[in-house]
Amino acid sequence: MFTYLHLLFIYKINYYYIIMLRGVYMRVVITAGGTGGHIYPALAIINEIKEQEPDSDILYIGTHNRMEKDIIPKYGIKYLPIEIYGFNKTKSGIKNDIKDLYLIPKAYKKCLNILKEFKPDIVIGVGGYVTYPVIKAAHQLHIKTFIHEQNSIPGKANRALSKYASLVGVSIDGSEKYFKDTKCVLTGNPAGSNALKVPKISKTKYGLHEDKKGILIFNGSLGSKTVNDKMIDYLKSIGNEEYEVLYITGKSGYADFKKNNFPDNVFITDYVESLPGLMKDMDLIISRAGASSIAEITTLGIPCILIPSPYVANNHQYYNALAIKEHKAGEMIEEKDLNKDTLITTIHSILDNTDKYLEYKENLIKLSNPKSANTIYKEIKKLIS
User: Fold this and answer.
1) From the centroid of its chain, how far is CA 269?
2) Count of beta carbons in the 10 Å neighbourhood of residue 45
3) Quick one: which of 199, 116, 131 has its CA closest to 162?
4) Spatial separation of the C-alpha atoms in residues 190 and 185, rounded to whole Å
5) Residue 39 has what pLDDT?
6) Which end of the chain is more exposed for a tag (fewer CB within 10 A), N or C?
């Protein structure tokens, strides 16, 4: 008698026969955009998938006009852009908000067509407004979805998308409370995993000397005009210091910033392609408190001074930085308190105190999660199997 068990047996035989023919690989759509804080964790996940399953077919969906459109194709990853804009709180952004009301359904329809044609095993969202139509389309087509949240307080896109997600990965213990109706798993931030694998870049490439302590200062992937303006007095005043500073302005602020006359121990550049590689040759990091930057800093164990941006949703960078300070792994200076004197004093409190410096290094590494990307890979495999 032909039973359900016979059908199941035939199905299993055919399934494993197909797997043997095609090899072990996944078809993955990944989407993230807007800032390096979303893009580089996405790249870390891609790298882990490629390391585990080299034949995997990966498609990246991003915006048509932000950083990812330039960064992702450089890595040989297939890239498809969609036109969409984030909602803007300022009056000048109202025009784009109205335009976006028309573009969201258009982008959603385009994503449906892309997913139908590509036929992914899973769709992964790693933050930014571009993820919204992609994840929603995947849910509509009954494709497994995974979204990842880097910050302690989730962004708007991930909050809205959680109801469409098969699983949510969070970077910070306690963030699960914001996703009460969706299954969550603590994964850490995969940007840290990637930082370990990036080759070291010598600071001499940017003019600094090997025999002097080096401080790296940057303000997130997009830079910060407010911090740039506040830093000018500090950089002009440190000509007698024994350490050297490499200051990354961000591309938009570089031309004006470079016009200043800085002492010989100050070096200026607009952008560094592989920032974690350069971090490995530095003694102190001064930066914004974006989640991905913190993941890289903790994994590499480099003492830091964090200047959280007050212009982000839910003031999440402040809480990111506060966690580092409370764990005695670094210092925090709020932007309103940032000036030449507070910066010089805080720098010396770390570089001139060997015990504190080593304590910060040790505590940073305790906070790190270097296996984050692998954890995410394993969770993805569970979802699609």
Assistant:
1) 21
2) 29
3) 131
4) 14
5) 93
6) N
- The pLDDT value recorded for residue 97 is 58
Mean pLDDT, residues 87-102: 57
Q: How far apart are CA 212 and CA 171, in angstroms?
A: 35
**Number of Cα atoms under 13 Å in the Cβ half of residue 86:** 20
Residue 15: pLDDT band (50, 70, 90) is very low
pLDDT at 100: 60
Q: Give the pLDDT band of residue 185 (cuts 50, 70, 90).
A: very high
Answer left, alpha or beta for residue 336, where phi above 0 means left and psi between -120 and 50 means alpha: alpha
Which amino acid, residue 127?
G
Whole-number Å distance between alpha carbons of 220 and 105: 31
Distance separating alpha carbons of residues 269 and 151, to the nearest angstrom: 28
Give the pLDDT band of residue 212 (cuts 50, 70, 90). very high
277-294 mean pLDDT: 95
CA distance 132 to 155: 12
CA-based R_g, the chain, Å: 23
Q: Token match 């906070």: residue?
A: 367
Instruction: Give dist(CA 161, CA 181) in Å, integer.
Output: 11
354 burial type by CB count under 10 A (0-12 exposed, 13-18 middle, 19+ buried): exposed
3-state secondary structure the chain: CCCHHHHHHHHHHHHHHHHHHHCCCCEEEEECCCCHHHHHHHHHHHHHHHHHCCCCEEEEEEECCCCHHHHHHHCCCEEEEECCCCCCCCHHHHHHHHHHHHHHHHHHHHHHHHHHHHCCCEEEECCCCCHHHHHHHHHHCCCEEEEEECCCCCCHHHHHHHHHCCEEEECCCCHHHHCCCCCEEECCCHHHHHHHHCCCCCHHHHCCCCCCCEEEEECCCCCCHHHHHHHHHHHHCCCCCCCEEEEECCHHHHHHHCCCCCCCCEEEECCCCCHHHHHCCCCEEEECCCHHHHHHHHHHCCCEEECCCCCCHHHHHHHHHHHHHHCCCCEECCHHHCCHHHHHHHHHHHHCCHHHHHHHHHHHHHHCCCCHHHHHHHHHHHHHC
Distance CA 249, CA 355 (A): 31
